[in-house]
Amino acid sequence: MESAKQLSGTLAVAVFTAALGSLQYGYSLGVINAPQKVIEKNYARSLGVWTEESAVFSQNSTEEELPEVGQHPTVVMYWSLSVAIFSIGGVLSSFLVGFVGDLKGRVKGMLMVNVLAVAAGLLMGLCRMWKPHIMVISGRAVMGFYCGLTSGLVPMYIGEIAPKAYRGALGTLHQLAIVVGILISQVIGLDFVLGNDDMWPLLLGLSGAPAVLQSILLPFCPESPRYLFIILGEEEEARISLCRLKGQYDATADLEEMRREKEEADKEPRVSLLSLIRSTVYRQQLFVALMMHLSQQFSGINGIFYFSTAIFTQAGISQPVYATIGVGVINTIFTMVSVALVDKAGRRSLTLVGLGGMCCCAIIMTVGLAFQSQFWWMSYVSMSAIFLFVAFFEIGPGPIPWFIVAELFSQGPRPAAIALAGCCNWTSNFIVGMTFSYIQAWLGCYVFIVFAVLLLGFTVFTYLRVPETKGKTFEEIAAIFQKGRKELAASPKDISEMQQLKTATDA
């Protein structure tokens, strides 16, 4: 069995290839921010509210003129839509993750949806050929739809092919690829690289590039053995896939574990979204999964990204964009720390440390913001709190919710659970994005107190309700939740519900 623990070259290629979808997700998240002023100017030109003549006429006041372009109501509307439509696309498509994943398999599913990413990249890259605002919004909508699918398919595939000993570390690579994508978009979005008037369509269009590379590599990746055995019943194909992923070894023990899981899955057949929501059988797992995704988005991390430039400006940094890139670097470094620690320290421990640390940082940040007008050094307290806040986020609450959902559920309800968790994540992301500026205007520097209270609640919930899944088989994890409902297991209500799940035609 020792050889089964080794990381083979094929497994490395398969995980890298899948993570390219996550890289694309991260790039698409971050790419829209850096060139905002340039894109607004192009929107205004296309809409007829700004011309080159007016720019020449007010040549000496260009700095004042550009923000006015961005404040034009029509430009604001189209710009806001360009940003928000991405999340709306993600919310809609997250429901389809299970369907796409089971339609042709995890690998072919990822291959199919790459058509969307390439189409989105072309729409944005060629936006000057027609009306830029319409082309960019259309491209962002299609890209959001793609990212909603890939943010479910990637953790599902990696979770199913990863050896038990490395499941946490490999699962964390989804989040690592996201933050690397964000960092790449921040760096090449600088005005002297691609974030300028000539190159910005290429900057947006490049968001489809990873899909091209992924499409070339995916045919060389083995299909998920769990999908082959448990969903399709192809034991020999699953054995071949296991040997490709782990090297030549005796796959009997792994196949036996899948056989037991298949027997359980046959007793509890494929569960639809509606069945999963109504079911009391999976309620505890679903509650934990959704709360972990809510803790990720309602932690205030996106608020930090929105607010960081303003804080860095107040601290007297002449180029706050570089400080924001610094936040991206911290993001990446501490996600790597999480990759190294997650299979040693455990999921629950890292999530508790992360949420608790973020709660303390939110309080320190509030104090720094409240007193920075009285004490010059308080701005640096706020800055330090921002960097630490991001570091704590990436240690646990950032990467872990993405892959722990695949660990909490057996094969039957797993696709539906991942779809629901993804929808919850995208919806809460959209809510924070839309409401943060209003909450900030209302509470001012005390805005992060709201997040500190939420983080305290999430920390307590994690301590009381989230089990440790490190080193456990999917069977053992399911057993943890079954213990809590042992008495109910033989009740007529429960048996009747299991019969309903079996006969559900919408699965």
TrEMBL record:
Task: Give me the segments passing through the membrane.
Answer: 7-27, 76-99, 111-131, 137-158, 170-194, 286-309, 321-342, 349-371, 377-395, 416-435, 441-464
Q: Its membrane topology, per UniProt?
A: Multi-pass membrane protein
Q: Which InterPro entries match?
A: GLUT, MFS_dom, MFS_sugar_transport-like, Sugar/inositol_transpt, Sugar_transporter_CS
Q: Where is the Major facilitator superfamily (MFS) profile domain?
A: 14-470
Compartment(s): Membrane
Any single Pfam family the record assigns to this protein? Sugar_tr
Question: Which superkingdom is the protein from?
Answer: Eukaryota
Where does it primarily localize? membrane
Any GO molecular function: D-glucose transmembrane transporter activity
GO biological process entries: D-glucose import; dehydroascorbic acid transport
Asked if the Swiss-Prot or TrEMBL record annotates the protein with the keyword Transcription, the reply is no
Keywords from the named record: Membrane, Sugar transport, Transmembrane, Transmembrane helix, Transport
This protein's GO cellular component annotations are: brush border; plasma membrane
Which family would the database say this protein is a member of?
Answer: Belongs to the major facilitator superfamily. Sugar transporter (TC 2.A.1.1) family.
**What protein name applies here?**
Solute carrier family 2, facilitated glucose transporter member 2 isoform X1
Q: Which organism is it from?
A: Solea senegalensis (Senegalese sole)
